[in-house]
Amino acid sequence: MSTEPEKLLVVEDLTTTFATPGGPLPAVGGISFNINKNETLGIVGESGSGKTVLSRTIMGLQPRTNVTVTGSVLLNGHQIVGASENEKRKYWGIDVAMVFQDPMTSLNPVMRIGKQIDESLRVRLGMSREAAKARAIELLELVGIPSPERRYSAYPGQLSGGMRQRVVIAIALACSPKLLMADEPTTGLDVTIQAQILNLIDELKERLHMSVILVTHDLGVVATRTSRIIVMYAGRIVEIGDTREVFTNHRMPYTRALLESSPKVTNPSHTRLIAIPGRPPNLMKLSAGCSFAPRCAYATERCHQERPELQSSGAPGHFFACWNPLPASQGAPTS
Ligand SMILES: Nc1ncnc2c1ncn2[C@@H]1O[C@H](COP(=O)(O)OP(=O)(O)O)[C@@H](O)[C@H]1O
Ligand SMILES: [Mg+2]
Predict the structure, then answer these.
(1) How far is 303 from 92, CA to CA, in rounded Å?
(2) pLDDT at 4 exceeding the cut of 70
(3) Which of 15, 18, 230 to mutate for ligand 1's pocket (most ligand atoms within 8 Å of CB)?
(4) Which one of 70, 189, 258, 280 has the lowest number of neighbouring Cβ atoms within 10 Å?
(5) Residues in a beta bridge with 44
(6) What distance in angstroms lies between residue 129's CA and the mean position of ligand 2's atoms?
(7) Ligand lying nearest the CA atom of residue 45
(8) How far apart are CA 49 and CA 332, in angstroms?
(9) What is the CA(269)–ligand 1 centre distance, in A?
């Protein structure tokens, strides 16, 4: 008897298009994937590939005025696309919470950090002042902040960058979300602190039975911390699969280019980095073909003409979008 793992998040054909003075800008162009309970999924891609817009769209956080979202985001059974602000407020914090790149933009600089955690607990969970304070101190302790009682009364500016990001994580965890979305949570922090924050997220995921989406431009970050990876380019998924499969048997030349341009986790100082030639495409002028074709050493005529859809590599759950893929590392090479 086989039991289907429960899907916490099911995203189907999701698009996010901004109306800009220059015309429609398709930042997310038809994305489908899902996440199981207690899974960590990595989303990687160069800057501008649509990772943040995708994350915010999943949260239902896009500005209402100049954006059109189509498709479906089922989060713990709730439809996010088209949901009212009131409905989404019921899910935020409880079903999903987000940690953004820059802790200073998520924290109010003139409010003591304890109060910022309390607020969420009192408003969202209806806790009393005393109960909220006790829980806030517990949360500060949970995210590894030393002397939490003392830090409860500190202002964000009195903490280091790493400690501030721990506070942001504490706020995200306040209502015990089922899914934690971390968008470049360690970019800008020094390497040692980065590892500490990533280890903390890992630890909390196990302890609190959460699922995690780890968004990063750095493949080193997702190599050891995710079970599956989505590789994004120009607002689309160009490769998706088990982390091991994507690292060892990627078929999309863009994935290879990303790997070659990322410091190796095992030997960061001795890796020669190869920058990906060319620049990410102008999303308002996407060609009918593969968006990566103009930068791809393997591109053929067809790549410039016709967009490749995701196809199976043969390995379970591994898909890539490429007309002229890299040969499989085992088995018969294609084309
Ligand atoms: N509010 C907005 N209005 C118009 N374009 C936007 C807006 N937000 C993001 N974009 C565009 O969407 C694309 C994807 O951006 P983003 O998701 O931030 O990339 P990433 O997080 O992968 O670096 C970029 O071309 C960016 O300029
Ligand atoms: Mg981003």
Answers:
(1) 41
(2) no
(3) 18
(4) 70
(5) 216, 231
(6) 36
(7) 1
(8) 32
(9) 31
pLDDT per residue over 98-134, tens digit each?
Answer: 998 776 778 999 999 999 999 889 988 899 999 999 9
Model confidence at 330, in pLDDT bands (50, 70, 90)? low
Cβ contacts of residue 195 below 8 Å, gap of 6+? none
Decide: 15 and 71 in contact? Cβ < 8 Å.
yes
What does the pLDDT look like over 305-316, one tens digit per residue? 999 999 999 999
Q: What is the pLDDT of residue 188?
A: 81
Atom of ligand 1 nearest to the CA of 45: 22
For residue 191, pLDDT beyond 90:
no
pLDDT value of residue 82: 94
Angle at 199 between CA 194 and CA 202, to 5 degrees: 130
Give how far the C-alpha of residue 185 lies from the chain's centroid of Cα atoms, to the nearest Å. Answer: 9
CA 160 to centroid of ligand 2, rounded, Å: 22
pLDDT higher than 70, residue 142: yes
Does residue 54 carry a pLDDT above 90? yes
Sort strands 7-20 and 67-75 into parallel, antiparallel or unpaired: antiparallel
Quick one: which of 101, 81, 104, 103 has its CA closest to 91? 81
Are 211 and 180 in contact by the 8 Å Cβ rule? The answer is: yes
What is the pairing mode between strands 228-233 and 236-242?
A: antiparallel
What's this model's pTM, rounded to 2 decimal places? Answer: 0.92
Instruction: Tell whether ligand 1 has an atom less than 6 A from the beta carbon of residue 52.
Output: yes
Q: Rounded to a whole number, what is the distance in angstroms from the first to the last CA of the chain?
A: 39
